[in-house]
Every structure is written in C-alpha cells, then in structure tokens.
Amino acid sequence: MTTIVNHEELARSLPIEKIDVSQIDLYVRDTMHPYFKRLRDEAPVHYLKESAYGPFWSITRFNDCVAIDTNHKVFSSDASVGSFVLDDATLNPTTEHGLYMPNFLGMDPPRHDIHRKAVSPAVAPENLEKLEPLIRERSGRVLDDLPVGETFNWVDRVSIELTTLMLATLLDFPLEQRRRLTRWSDVVTASPGDGFIDSWEQRKNELLECKAVFKDMFAERAKLPPKADLISMLAHSPEMADITEDEFMGTLALLIVGGNDTTRNSMSGSAMAASKYPVEFEKVKSNLALIPNAVSEAIRWQTPIAHMRRTALSDIEFGGQQIRKGDKVVMWYISANRDERVIERPFEFIADRKNARHHMSFGFGIHRCVGNRLAEMQVRILWEEFFKRFSQIEVVGEVKRIPSNLIHGYINIPVQVRR
Amino acid sequence: MPKVTFITHDGKEFTVDAVAESSAMEAATHNFVPGIDGDCGGSVACGTCHVFVDNAWAGKAPQPAEGAEKEMLLLLDNYEPHSRLACQIKLTDDLDGLVLRMPRGQH
C-alpha cells in the first residue's frame, strides 16, 4: 500500500520544531518548498534539535542569509571547526569518513584570501574573453550531435558533457579521459547508498586515485614553463609556493565540484524552465538579447547549491535567537531564492525579470562563487548556440533528481528538441 | 543633484545626474550605465560595482572604509590603490563632477 503524502498540508500541520528541511526525500521528490515557506513565515531562524546530521540552525530568508554569509568573523567555514556543508560525514576531517581536503571555501582569512587569489585570475573576465571562442565551438559541436525529434537525456548529453569539456579545458586535462572528472566530482560529496558509491572504502579508493593522477600532473607542470591552465597556475603561483599536497588536492576538488555540479545543474535547470514556461521561452527566442538576463534568472530559479553551512565561532544573538559557539548554521539558498520579501513571484521563471542578478545562488561575501562569470558565460553560450540550431525543447518524461540536500539538480531529464 | 561620470575601460563616457546622498552604484544602475552590476544591491557583499576613482579625484574622494569594503576589494584580481566599491561612495554635493573608471569586467 502506498500513501500519498500531501506536503502542503503536512508542512502546515507539523509542529514547527519538528520541521526538518534536510531530509533527502524532500529533494528527490521536489517537495521541500512548503516546509521552507513555513519556516520563512514563522521561524526564519529555526533550530532543529535532532536530525540525521545532528542539531542545526536553518536560515531561510534572503536578507538573513546575506547577513550570515557576510559575517565570516563569527560564522566560520574553516575546516578546523567544521565544514561548509551540513553533512559532516564527507568533508569534515574530524569525522570517521571525512577527508581532509583543505580548500579556500573551507578556510577563513587570511589563508582563504591567499588561496582564492591564486585561482581567481583564471576565471576573471579578461581570461574568459580568451576562452569564449573555444567554449562556443565546443558547445556548438555538442548541440550538433543531438538527435533531433528523438528522446535523450539532456543531463548526460548536454549538461555533463559541456561542463566536463570546460573543466578539462581549464585544467588542461586529457579530453578523452574527461568523464573521470565527472565521476570524481560526484564521488567527493557522495555517501554509500546514494547511487554513486556503495561503500566508504570505494569512495576513499577512488579519491586516492584522483589524488595520484593530479599529483603527477602537478609535478609535471611544475617542471615545465608556466601555462594558462589552472594546474600550471597553481604549480607556479608564488603565493602558493609552500602549498602542501593536501591543499593542492583540496583546491582541485573544490574546483572540480564547484565547476561541475553547479554549472551542470544550471544548464539542466534552464532546460527545465525552457520547457515549463513556453511563453518565457518564446520571449527569449524572439529577443536573443534577453539571454544574459534569462541565464541569471535560471540560476536563481534552479539554485544549484541548495545550502551552505557555517559554524558559529562565538555566542551570538541573531534574528531574536541565541546561537551558541560551535552551532551549525545552515543558509538555505534554495529558500532565500524563493523569499517573497525580496523576490516578486519567486516561484515563477521570468526571463525578463528586473534585477535578475540579485539572487542568492552564488552566495555573498568573501566566499561568493569565484567562477560565477564563467558559469554565466557557459550557460549563455549554450542558449545562444541552441537558438541557432533549434526552435523548441520539451521535457517528455519523468525527471530524476539528485538525492541530495546540497547539490540541487538532476540525473535524468528526458527531452526532445526540434529544429 | 551631483553629477557623476563613469568611463568604461574602452573609453566610453556616461555622465548621469545622481540623487543627492544616493550611492554611485545606484546612480549607475538606475541610469542603465553598462558595466556596474551591483548584484547584492549595496550590502558590500559581491564586489560587482568595482570602480577606480579617477586620478584627478584621488585626493578628494573618500578612501574605502576598513572592514567589509576593504576586505571585498582586496579579493579582486584587478584591485588598485584607487579602487572603490561604488555602492559605498555616497554622492554628496562635494563630489559633484566625480569621475569613476570601470574595470574591463566585474568579477
């Protein structure tokens, strides 16, 4: 017997202290929003005593998320005190399976600043202008290969393919082995039983293999003259001269996950929006100058990173609640981007939305997504090239979502495209 | 109403009338000056309204405040001694005629 749960009803009737927005099931079925709405309205700074991840605070309003994100002196993302994700099992080095992968997202200043600045120029506008023709050509080729009028998985054929190609380009990683990057990206945040790995042992082994591959590449490029790829940049960066093996790996892991899962799911989300909102799709098709705005809107609407987590370094009163030193504080970007207080008609995808760039998806403050301009460019080029070739896209079957409260996206989106 | 001029990295000039006491970021975005994004809306949280105070104004325009603005500026790839976040420049009458130069792109 199956019971159909009415989530709107349940979200209204549950005692507020019992609401647990971290449950993976909610994300698999895309039923988390009624719970977030209740929290935004009634308990915007909400404490959950017990969950699969232990107790944590949920921050669900837009402006509160900005306030936490910009107060890095109190709300730390440093790996030494916790992690920047809710689940301590994968990335918090003090836990049994948590791997020590130090990277600048998991660092506080001043170390954060040094590491971030070593990577940042690679994804700055000046460098992106140089990369644009190559991305355009590769995107065009991927789209040329799509089977017109037949059902295919957009995630695999387009989103994964394009982001992985891009990442391989940025790292100067052998193109023919590029799907290993996709795999490692999935494995970093995976835990047993989620469909990606079967055991912790397997995860560890695969990541060790990843480490070995990159260690060799690092050593090789350190000996060669500097080039524009990220590995060479790290190997030759004067600020990073004393980088440890662990730090190098951590930085790479961050770039692989950051440059992969996120842009991938923005591409997937934009396809979902294109199919679900035909009027908006037509608006863009008849006025291609709207694409950049529609891309920002798609990144908001999708919110590929559902949350980021911080750890309080001291007791602090926030939003009328007493947060204690050591508490986990979760900024639910996915809720902030649906906050009616800041965004009008937030559940709708509106291609020409005013102020579309004012969204939470990249985070704010010193940890704001360093690759945001690259991501926007990749998604923009995808749709510019799409409209040169096709006039229609339709989701034609049931979609399969990633079972995660961190990576908000898709495993399978069956679509058809038409010329 | 103080006037403020924005100059793009390739030399295009945009002179706009600003509402007194508004920020230079608002003056740019409300007048559709391209190249100033202001993604965070003025909470010193994104660094996408980065400008360089023109040399002629360097001594007269206020310096970035210690704290959030300085922290965000120091993380930018193209930070220079005259860098400011436009959202933190309050356009008072003293700054009438202010000239701000823009980077090649906001990051």
Key structural traits:
heterodimer, A: 419 residues, alpha+beta, 3-stranded antiparallel sheet, 10% strand, B: 107 residues, Ubiquitin-like (UB roll), 5-stranded mixed sheet, 5 strands, globular
What layout of secondary structure does this protein have?
The complex is a heterodimer of chains A (419) and B (107).
Chain A: H1 7-13, H2 24-28, H3 33-42, E1 45-48, E2 56-59, H4 62-70, E3 75-76, H5 88-91, H6 111-119, H7 125-144, E4 152-153, H8 154-171, H9 179-188, H10 200-223, H11 230-236, H12 245-258, H13 261-276, H14 278-285, H15 291-302, E5 307-312, E6 316-318, E7 321-323, E8 328-332, H16 333-336, H17 372-389, E9 392-395, E10 400-401, E11 410-412, E12 414-418
Parallel strand pairs in A: 2-8
Antiparallel strand pairs in A: 1-2, 3-5, 4-12, 5-8, 6-7, 9-12, 10-11
Helix pairs in contact in A: 7-8, 7-17, 8-13, 10-11, 13-15, 13-17, 15-17
Chain B: E1 3-7, E2 13-17, H1 24-30, E3 50-53, H2 68-74, E4 83-85, E5 98-101
Parallel strand pairs in B: 1-5
Antiparallel strand pairs in B: 1-2, 3-4, 3-5
Number of domains of chain B: 1
Beta percentage of chain B is: 15-25%
Order of helices and strands of chain B: EEHEHEE
User: Which structural class should the secondary elements of chain B be placed in?
Assistant: alpha+beta
Looking at this structure, what is the CATH superfamily of chain B? Beta-grasp domain
How many helices of chain A does DSSP assign? 17
Percent helix of chain B, as a range, is 10-25%
**N/C terminus separation of chain B:** 30 Å
Assembly form of the protein: heterodimer
Main β-sheet of chain B: number of strands, strand sense, barrel status? 5 strands, mixed
Q: What best-fitting shape of chain B do the alpha-carbon axes yield?
A: globular
Strand content of chain A: 5-15%
CATH architecture of chain B: Roll
* Estimated helix fraction of chain A: 40-55%
Largest sheet geometry of chain A: 5 strands, mixed
Round the mean pLDDT of chain B to the nearest integer and report it: 94
